[in-house]
Amino acid sequence: MPGGGEELKKPWQGRFIKDTAPEVLKFTASLPYDCRLALFDIEGSRAHVEMLSQTGIINADEAEVILKGLEDIREEIVSEKFPYDLEFEDIHMNIEKRLTEKIGSVGGKIHTARSRNDQVALDMHLYVLEEAKAIDVNLLQLQKVLLKCAEQNLDVVIPGYTHLQRAQPVLLAHHILAYFWMLKRDRERLQGAIERADLMPLGAGALAGTGFPIDRERVAEKLGFKKLYENSLDAVSDRDYIIEFLSFSSILIMHLSRLCEEIILWSSFEFGFIELDDAHTTGSSMMPQKKNPDVAELIRGKSGRVYGSLLSMLTVMKGLPLAYNKDLQEDKEGLFDTIDTLKAALPLLADMLGVMNINRSRLKEAVDDDYLCATDLADFLVRQGVTFREAHHIVGKMIGYCRQNSKRLRELEVQERKQFHSALAEDIGDLLDPVHVVAARRCRGGTAPESVQQQLELAYKLL
Q1: Mean confidence (pLDDT) of the chain
Q2: Dist CA 163 CA 339 (whole Å)
Q3: CB 12 within 8 A of CB 44
Q4: Cα 99 to the chain's mean position, in Å?
Q5: C-beta of residue 219 within 8 angstroms of C-beta of residue 118
Q6: Annotated catalytic, 451?
Q7: Is cis: bond before 323, omega within 30 of 0?
Q8: What residues have CB less than 8 Å from 210, skipping those under 6 apart?
Q9: Which residues have a Cβ under 8 Å from the Cβ of 333 and sit 6 or more positions away?
Q10: Rg (Cα) of the chain, in Å, rounded?
Q11: Of 109, 163, 226, 383, whose CA is between 20 and 30 Å from 24?
Q12: 213: number of CA atoms within 13 Å, CB side?
C-alpha cells in the first residue's frame, strides 16, 4: 500500500465500475510476450522523465526519485527478479506499478504528457533498431564466410544448372558469390528499414499530442533518434517500419532457403558435392547410415513462418482507421518470432558453411561431361559464320547422335563430326574442356577465374 495507503489500480480504471472479466484480461494481456521490451521501456521512460524535469513540468527532486526507482527496476529486470503481474496487462503498466510500489505516488508522474500509445510505439522503435543492427552484424559475418569459401575454391569447377538440369560449367566460387550479392541487397534493404524505424514517436500522446510544453527534440537526441514524426496521428498508428522489416526478413529468408536447398541437394548421395560436418547434422533412429542436413532443412522450413508474419501484419493493418486500435497489439509476436528466427539461423548457417567439406574428386567427375560444353561448340560454329540458331540445331543433332551411339562429343571421329558441319573437322578438344570453357567467360560478371577474382576484390572493398 505505497504512497500513503493508495490502492494500486490500472491507470484507466477510474471510468469503470466492474472489474475486467478474467477471461478478457487473459485474452487482451500482452505481458507474456511484450516483457522483452522491458529495458527499452526503462530507457524511454528515463529520457521522458529527464525532459519533464528540464522543461519544468515536474521538479528536479521528483525526477531524481523517479530515475532512481527506474534504475532499481532495471536491475531487477536484468537479474530476473522483477515481479511480473498479468493483472496489469503489459510490460509498460507493470513497470509503472512497480515504480509506484517502490517510490509512492510520485511514480504516477512518469506518465505525465505521455500515453501508452506513444510509449508502446517508442519501445517498438527502439527494439527494432537494436535488433536490426544485430542482424546486420550476423549478415556481415555470413558474407565474410561466403567470401572465404569462394576464395578457397577458386580452382574448383562445378556443373551449373538451369531447371535443375546440368547446363554449363562454372566455378564453385562464382556460384557461392551469387549468394554474397543477394545478401548485399538484403543488407541494403535492412538499412532502408532501419532508416524508416529511426523516427521518434514520443510526444504524440494518445493521438493528438499534448498540452504540456514538452521538448520532443531533446528526447529524440537523448535516445539517439535522427528524426521525429511530424504528425501525432501517424506516430501512434504507423507500423510501416515493422512491415518493412518483415518484408526484408521474408526476402532474406527466401535467399537463405535457396542456399540451404542447394546444401541439401549437394550433400545427398546422388550429388555428393559436399559433406556437412557432424556438428551440423543428425542421424536416424532406425537407419544407421543416415546423415541428415537438419539445420539446412529447418532454415528452409522456417521461411514459412517468416512469410506468415509479414502477411499477418499486412492483414492487420489493411482496414484500420486512424489512430490507435487494439489490433495493433498484434504487431509484436510475429516480429519477435521473425527476429528470433533470423538471429538463430544466420550464425548457424555461417558456421555450417565455414566447416563443410568440398568433395573435389566428385566435382571433377561431375564436370567430366562434355555435353556441358555444348554451348561453346555452338559458339565456335557462329565464329565460322553460322547463325546461332542454326549452330544450336547442329550441335543438338550431334548430341542426339552421341546418345544413340553411346558416345561423348569428344569421342566422335573427324568423319562423324564432318557430317554435321565441315568446320567441325578441326580439333575441337579445347571447346569440350570445362576448364577452358570456364576460362573463356571473361566478361564482367562472368565465371572466368580472372572475372571471379575481380568479384572477390570488389566484394572485399564493399565490406
Answers
A1: 94
A2: 33
A3: no
A4: 37
A5: no
A6: no
A7: yes
A8: 113, 114, 203
A9: 33
A10: 31
A11: 109
A12: 6
Compute the distance between CA of residue 201 and CA of residue 227 in angstroms, rounded to an integer.
Answer: 9
Answer whether the bond into residue 208 is a cis peptide, omega within 30°: no
Distance CA 15, CA 206 (A): 17
Predicted local distance difference test score (pLDDT) of residue 10: 63
227-228 and 274-275 beta bridge pairing: unpaired
Nearest CA among 264, 265, 269 for reference residue 280:
264
Single out the residue of 417, 392, 393, 421 nearest to residue 405, CA to CA: 417
pLDDT digits (tens, 9 = 90+) for 2-45: 343 344 566 656 666 677 787 887 888 899 999 999 999 999 99
Place of cell 529524440: 220
132-138: list long-range contacts, CB under 8 Å, 24+ apart. Answer: 132/190, 132/193, 132/194, 132/197, 132/245, 133/194, 134/343, 135/190, 135/339, 135/342, 135/343, 135/346, 136/187, 136/190, 136/191, 136/194, 138/342, 138/343, 138/346, 138/347, 138/350
Which residue bears the cell 561466403? Answer: 146
Backbone angles phi, psi at 54, to 5 degrees: -65, -25
CB of 354 within 8 A of CB of 148? yes
Q: What element of type H or E holds 242?
A: helix 240-266
79, 163, 285, 406: which is the annotated catalytic residue? Answer: 163
Q: Which residues pair with 165 in a beta bridge?
A: 162
Q: Per the residue annotation, which of 105, 268, 284, 422 is the catalytic one? A: 284
Measured distance CA(115)–CA(265) in Å, rounded: 53
Would you say how long the chain is, in residues? Answer: 463
Residue whose entry in the numeric block shows the C-alpha cell 558416345: 407
Name the one residue in this structure whose C-alpha cell is 522543461. Answer: 55
Are the CB atoms for 131 and 120 separated by under 8 Å? no
| 336 neighbors 131 (Cβ within 8 angstroms) | no
List the one residue out of 7, 14, 25, 24 whose CA is nearest residue 86: 25
Burial status of residue 392 (CB atoms within 10 A of its CB: 0-12, 13-18, 19 or more): middle
The DSSP code for 282 is B
194: cell is 532501419
Query: What stretch of H or E contains 349?
Result: helix 333-355
Judge whether 163 counts as a catalytic residue: yes
pLDDT means over runs of 10, the chain (463 residues) = 46 68 84 96 98 98 98 98 94 96 96 97 98 98 98 97 96 98 98 98 97 98 98 98 98 98 97 96 89 96 98 97 95 98 98 97 94 93 95 96 94 93 91 94 96 97 93
Q: What is the pLDDT of residues 236-255, one digit of tens each?
A: 999 999 999 999 999 999 99
Which of 284, 80, 108 shows the shortest CA–CA distance to 98? 108
